[in-house]
Give the backbone structure.
Amino acid sequence: MRRLDPHETWAAMTGGALLIDTRTDRQRARQGDLPGAIVIDRTVLEWRLDPASENRIPEATCYDVQIVVVCRQGYSSSLAAASLRSIGLHRATDLAGGVEAWLAAGLPVTGGPADVRE
């Protein structure tokens, strides 16, 4: 899996990729929310993004959608992206270095409200 750097992640997102933030409420409160990101708890990620799931989010329309998963440091997002690939979402990847890398690159954050999907 080819992981994206912060600027590649921004370009993917502005090009239509789903940016999925799996950080906790507490982490997002400390670091800020990413503009355009959809917040999905890691424990429900697969069934919320699987196009075959009756509990998917509306944006999970097909297995060809590009998904970029982000977490705080880029560790759990790698595992999450690999799991999404295992269910057929072959364009899933993640942000190398997580939101910490995003912030270090000077990319924007917002104060919310986040687009939280439960």
In short: Residues 6-22+35-117 form a domain with the Oxidized Rhodanese; domain 1 fold (CATH 3.40.250.10). Strands lie at 18-21, 38-40, 67-70, 92-94, 115-117.
